[in-house]
Amino acid sequence: MERTFIILKPNAVRRGLIGEILKRFEQRGIKIVGMKFLKMSREQAEKLYEPHKDKPFYNELLEFMLSGPVVVLVLEAPRVVEMVRHIVGATDPLKAEAGTIRGEFALTVTKNLIHASDSEENYLRESSIFFREDELIDYYLDV
Ligand code: CMP
Questions:
Q1: Catalytic site residues (predicted)?
Q2: Dist. CA 123–CA 74, nearest whole Å
Q3: Are 42 and 105 in contact (CB under 8 A)?
Q4: Ligand 1 binding pocket includes 115 (Cβ within 6 Å)
Q5: In the β-sheet with 2-8, what is the strand arrangement from edge to edge?
Q6: Quick one: average pLDDT of 104-124?
């Protein structure tokens, strides 16, 4: 079974959108196997966004991600990397389709509410910054 990693960004928490966002994954039947509420350390944020460190938006992105608590999750389902990105919508909210999380609730590309891994390789890299393997819980979903 495939897994992916997501972050509900500080504005999602501050806007009271945790339930609204998680509902969309749960109602699809996607399983939560890891979940934490935390304030990211600078070291964690730098590791997470290391691939973007030379981009012009890097500093703004880092400060935003450190500006308040986030919720980090590991989700599990068949083809979940692609499925979650489909539910989340395009990185730029202007291009995100109606009905997606960003298409309905986000306004700017920095404050685009949620991060989702774009590959299994990045799932492994990103999730390991926030979760140990023994913190991910295996169980079955009920009817
Ligand atoms: P995320 O999925 O967290 O991964 C990298 C983040 O960089 C992305 O979401 C956006 O929040 C941010 N980002 C990407 N492109 C831009 C851009 N052109 N300007 C500002 N922020 C950006």
A1: 115
A2: 9
A3: no
A4: yes
A5: 31-38, 70-77, 2-8, 114-116
A6: 97
| pLDDT tens, residue by residue, 76-102 | 999 999 999 999 999 999 999 999 999
The answer to the question of whether 15 is labelled as a binding residue is: no
pTM of model > 0.80: yes
Q: Give me the domains of the chain, ranges plus CATH numbers.
A: 2-39+69-135 (3.30.70.141)
pLDDT (mean) for 98-125? 97
Question: Tokens representing 103?
Answer: 């298409």
- Dihedral of alpha carbons 131, 2, 80, 143, sign: negative
**In testing the pocket of ligand 1, which one of 9, 11, 57 has its CB within 8 Å of the most ligand atoms?**
57
- Asked whether residue 132 is marked as a ligand-binding residue, the answer is no
pLDDT of 143 reads: 87
**How many CB atoms are located within 10 Å of the residue 72 CB?**
22
123-135: b or e for each residue (b if 16 or more CB lie within 10 Å)? bebbbebbbeeee
